[in-house]
């Protein structure tokens, strides 16, 4: 991350800059409409589960993330602040194309997850806000650089893992009483985590300690070690029984010992 941050925060990257301009422009249009004819953008582009299900407004599963509550300026403020602070670093790390895919997938999951819950009985109203995508970014950042020190609000040094928790709480509570659903936050976080761990194009960027292939390799090695220890134990027991036979004959073995010797011979010694 060296060189990415300036004195206040990270340098703006191309996709993040475009997203900030897009969100800001749409918010300005929302304000203008709300002061004149009404916020029709929220009606047609906010995520309303019944409209997605019964009227097939499937675009709402993504477009909701580019709208914000005109009654709550803090929500768009903290969303865009988080997008700048964490999105710019992740875009530098992954590249613009992979970053955009990650962000849009997190936004989509922020709409898809509440829609699924709505259809199984957990009802909510219209959902708007980029918080689903932001939560995905926060999860990814905290997984990659948990101990990176950042300047919170440009003044207070905090480790990334603590700043992420604080920003999540701010975003969550800044949506209270408005059209923002907390299940969208959870959906975005889940989407971000899933994409981070399993998407092939980002797999090479996962820290070795978090890699699924590394985990499977360690698990395989553990099983191999257990099998080797078991073989060593069997060989020692077989050697003991063979010594007993050489001294006292086959009849000196108990029925259990004879059975063990036969099974060990067929299972282990046939493999060598």
Automatic annotation (TrEMBL):
Keyword Transit peptide: no
Keyword Cell membrane assigned: no
One Pfam family from the record: DUF6576
Enzyme Commission identifier(s): 3.4.21.-
Enzyme class: hydrolase
InterPro entries: DUF6576, Peptidase_S54_rhomboid_dom, Rhomboid-like_sf, Rhomboid_protease_S54
DUF6576 domain segment(s): 230-266
Principal subcellular localization: membrane
Transmembrane stretches, start-end: 20-37, 57-78, 99-117, 123-144, 151-174, 180-199
Keywords for the protein's UniProt record, in alphabetical order: Hydrolase, Membrane, Transmembrane, Transmembrane helix
Location of the protein in the cell: Membrane
One MF annotation (Gene Ontology) recorded for this entry: serine-type endopeptidase activity
Membrane disposition: Multi-pass membrane protein
Domain Peptidase S54 rhomboid: 58-199
Single GO cellular component term: membrane
Family note: Belongs to the peptidase S54 family.
Protein name per UniProt: Peptidase, S54 family
Lineage: Bacteria, Pseudomonadati, Spirochaetota, Spirochaetia, Leptospirales
């Amino acid at each position: 991350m060296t060189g990415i941050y300036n004195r206040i925060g990270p340098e703006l990257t191309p996709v993040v800059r475009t997203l900030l301009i897009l969100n800001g422009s749409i918010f300005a249009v929302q304000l203008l409409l709300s002061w004149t004819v009404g916020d029709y953008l929220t009606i047609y582009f906010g995520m309303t589960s019944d409209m997605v299900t019964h009227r097939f407004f499937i675009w709402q599963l993504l477009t909701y993330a580019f709208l914000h509550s005109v009654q709550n300026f803090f929500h768009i403020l903290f969303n865009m602040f988080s997008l700048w602070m964490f999105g710019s670093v992740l875009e530098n790390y992954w590249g613009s194309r992979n970053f955009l895919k990650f962000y849009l997938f997190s936004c989509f999951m922020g709409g898809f997850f509440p829609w699924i819950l709505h259809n199984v009985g957990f009802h909510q109203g219209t959902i708007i806000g980029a918080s689903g995508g932001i939560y995905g970014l926060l999860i990814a950042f905290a997984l990659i650089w948990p101990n990176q020190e950042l300047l919170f609000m440009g003044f207070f040094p905090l480790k990334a893992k603590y700043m992420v928790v604080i920003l999540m709480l701010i975003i969550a509570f800044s949506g209270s009483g408005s059209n923002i659903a907390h299940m969208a936050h959870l959906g975005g976080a889940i989407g971000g985590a899933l994409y981070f761990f399993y998407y092939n194009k980002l797999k090479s960027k996962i820290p070795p300690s978090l890699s699924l292939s590394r985990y499977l390799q360690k698990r395989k090695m553990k099983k191999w070690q257990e099998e080797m220890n078991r073989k060593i134990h069997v060989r020692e027991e077989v050697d003991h029984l063979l010594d007993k036979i050489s001294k006292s004959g086959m009849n000196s073995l108990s029925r259990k010992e004879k059975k063990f010797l036969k099974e060990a011979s067929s299972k282990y010694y046939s493999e060598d």
